[in-house]
Write a structure and sequence with these properties.
alpha+beta; four-stranded antiparallel sheet; three-stranded antiparallel sheet; 4 helices
Amino acid sequence: MDMPNCCQASPRTLKRGLFSTAVELSRTDYAYVGVGGGAYEADLSYSYVGQGGGSFEKEQRTEYTNWRLRPCTWSLVGVLFIALGVLALGGVANFGGHGEEGPCGDEDCMCGFAQGWTKEKQLWCCHHKGMGCTPDGSVNPLPGIGKLASTLQGCSTQCLFKGISADCAARVKYAAQHRFVDDADRCESAYTLVNSQCSFCETCPLASIGCNDPPVHTGA
């Protein structure tokens, strides 16, 4: 004997989540569990006859259909795509090759050095920042500007100024211990002076110099 396995549907309810909405549909199913094993008996409809008195047991299920993203979710997705687009465009701009300054700027001598500069930028940076000067000495910094005499190495970067080559840290220490010896802020004053002469010494943080350390004396 085939036993019916029917269900009854309840009214649909719209449920809202954080990012989407869906239609909630609850269904009541009756599953055959054997004579005397359930609480309901099948007729034209199911009637409660008491636990152990029927052949069916009641089961209730909830289903969600017609999923749709909420407007706020679409807005969030749009913002995400815009952000990705901006990042992608930024990467393309920073990729620029030789002769293409991109976001560096014509007078930003700390940017684009490895990729190569235009002749105009090289001339300006040599005159005003002491960077990118020709090895043959045909182009030199303006008076009062130190010349980059090594690769950029932080506090060990060499600056050639008034015929003397010394690294950035040594220049700051010397100025603090001699020119600004009576200045309460001698280290800050010395650091400002050296950076005005050798602007690339900005790659050497003052905190890394040990400006207040006592001078080291050598000799017999």
